[in-house]
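#structure-requests
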Amino acid sequence: MKVTIAQINTTNGDIAGNTAKILSAIEKTRGDGSDLVVFPEVATHGYTSLDWFQDADIIAHSLDPLREIIPATKGITAVIGTIRPNEAKDGRRLYNTAAVIHDGELVGFADKTLLPEYDVFDDPRYFEPSDHRRIFDVGGVKLGVVVCEDFWNDKTFWRERLYESDPTDEVLQMGAEVIVSVNASPYNKGKIRLRCDMVAHRAKLQKRPIIFVNLVGGNDGIIFDGASLVADEEGDIILQASAFEEFVETVELDVRKPDARGISGDEVGSIRRALVLGIRDYAEKNGFQRAVIGLSGGIDSALVAALACEAIGPENVLCVMMPSPFSSEGSINDSEELVRNLGCDSRIEPISDAFEVLLRQLGLDKPKRGGDSLAAENMQSRIRGVILMAISNAEGRLVLSTGNKSELAVGYCTLYGDTNGGLAVLGDVLKTEVWQIARQINNAAGREVIPNKIIEKRPSAELAPDQFDDDSLPPYDVMDPILQMYFEQKASPADIIAAGHDAERVYWILNKVEHPANEFKRRQLPPTLIISKNAIGIGRRRPVTHKYKRVL
């Protein structure tokens, strides 16, 4: 049996465009002589379409794409992630489903049962869970078809499970000879290897081939890496899709030839590719061809500039240097060197005159009174924000904000200043990871794309004389492991302290994270590219108004 992975990049709500991609992949599949082609979860409408799934128009016309696709499947079997209406009077109005089509005829649907509502997922808000399972006998092969989470509850693989039932185990018990799993599994660190291990484990244990197809592409802040795969009955991966790009290829199930092209083992490189894909798709899918970045001479903005040039081309990237009275000469020189290395456009827009005018107007040029110094510091960041947004309005450029996760977590950022923009590129990237990615870029290029002077520079916001980040914050190499445990592992203070971190420091950091003012700042962020579990943004939800405090 020849099977095809159709790992396509869909756009939310672009039903015509998504359908065209499906039809194109089916034609390629037919040319490859394939028997079966499999597409990702909700490939017709876009998995992250959110409350569009509640719109009466979407529900009423949910089956329209299939009416165009079904006639194109003559001589082939296709499994396509889509939605269908729930005809019952009660429950959610849609099923998240996989349509099984054979030789120009709809065989039936495999509806999703296990509906995730953790991290970035919110399936129960939109979909009705199914309690029905069936086997699809197509071309003499018994297919067990499951949708995403219905594959992810194997009691022999996971130490802890979220659900009592296992739909995949049920279809295996019903006699499935081949398992087909359609997925929209977002990228986060370690996920590509995890999926391979999970699929290989089940295939080897059950002695059944598994076709696991995953969505690829960026949709707002959620990035799907693809990395789809086919495992044979021995648990060997015989077709591995390239990560972070569209992929339509065919393999014979008994080929017995291992394929590991999608597994690089370079996690830092994978993060970089995820961010590049996130920038590119966010820009293209929202109609932006060009971007603008405020370049400070520091590592964060330098990395965003490098990623943007890789994503949309240096000819489409404008870096704006906005020196203040406190900007060092080195910052301008380092920024100019970076611009030369990247080959992008740049300009200098000093803010000193505007800053002095506002200081006098607000009376902040007098000797310091209470919060005057902080107000003056924040004013500089906000003036820069005004300049970037003005350029965006005038030239139709996407503003890429540059704050990293470490700063955003503890509120070391300026509301309506460095937090503004159209896309938060590093909002889920810790400062230590920023340095790692920058070095990876240089190592991969075999030259200094990002000048080493920028990478090695002592971090500073340069909003006051002799100001450095570590005057206000713990060192990043101390703070980041604490933040990583708290966000990604949901570790308690006791767990973090038990891992060897100083108790007072742990509580200081966590209370900064949970402070209402800092949660309010994070609520104002533009969409944030997500590379980890429980990320700032839709992956982690906290109230602004609260009185919860960690007490040592």
